[in-house]
């Protein structure tokens, strides 16, 4: 038998979600069976799968020891990641990080112990702000994602309450995200809002833009303004009004202005003159614009954060065209 006391970072979760994270070796089918058969109890009483846990609750598991994590001295994978982070802003609840192009935000099939989330967890572990042995189910987590070859601001939550609020605000679009990019060609309109419909092809890892809605598409809105033009190139600021996979890259390409360096939605022939092998796209600015209560993060409302330098902007100003 083993007991967990629900800590602050665990509170508010469903019982089944909590147990799945706290006892990772327990198969889901057995988890549900043990809840039904009262081998998993809350405060000594029968509980339900969807029961919401409160801080201080006692979750008791009358199950075999083999399902519990082995050694508390185990080597954490995140300690194998580099400790290099570019911090834009930090407080007791969150980190704003300047992710550089080429770095994964989360592990994928090519993962070799280096990702942004692994670096964050190592950073906080070494600062004494994250101890896996003291957490039943929570680990510092990222709120938003950025493509591997795109750089820019990524938000990391240090505690469960901040993570919940930030996820809610992201879904409600109460955070404004601005990007810089260089596109091929000069825009007909210096400022506009583009609309369309995006269909995702998982097997090809790309998306397609159409002007008609179907059961497979999601609506998209992309606002841009021209900051500067040099020869056949334009430097744009883009605001995402919806947040879809590859939205900026595909939307700009669909109107005849693919991003410089983007071989997926543009062509290598177009990009040859610049020598860029990755898209000139950067999530450079973030504005917190809360329209509803933000709880312990209310102090962020109205604040804006921006990275100091974007790798391709200096290049753009020196191009001989």
Number of strands: 15
Helix content: 10-25%
Question: H/E order of the elements?
Answer: EHHEEEEEHEEHEEEEEHHEEH
Q: Decide which structural class fits the backbone.
A: alpha+beta
- Residue share in β-strands: 25-35%
Poorly predicted ranges:
none
Q: Report the biggest beta sheet as strand number plus sense, adding barrel if it closes.
A: 11 strands, mixed
Overall 3D shape: elongated
Radius of gyration: 23 Å
- Total of helices: 7
Annotation keywords:
321 residues; alpha+beta; 7 helices
Write the layout of secondary structure elements.
Elements: E1 2-5, H1 15-22, H2 28-36, E2 40-42, E3 45-46, E4 58-61, E5 87-90, E6 94-99, H3 116-127, E7 141-142, E8 151-157, H4 160-171, E9 175-184, E10 191-201, E11 206-210, E12 217-230, E13 233-240, H5 247-254, H6 268-271, E14 281-288, E15 304-306, H7 311-318
Parallel strand pairs: 8-14
Antiparallel strand pairs: 1-4, 2-3, 2-4, 5-6, 6-8, 7-8, 9-13, 9-14, 10-11, 10-12, 12-13, 14-15
Description of the structure:
The protein has 321 residues and is of the alpha+beta class. It has 7 helices and 15 strands. Strands 5, 6, 7, 8, 9, 10, 11, 12, 13, 14 and 15 form an 11-stranded mixed beta sheet that branches. The chain is elongated. 33% of the residues are buried.
Summarize the structure.
Helices cover 19% and strands 28% of the residues. With 321 residues, it is of the alpha+beta class.
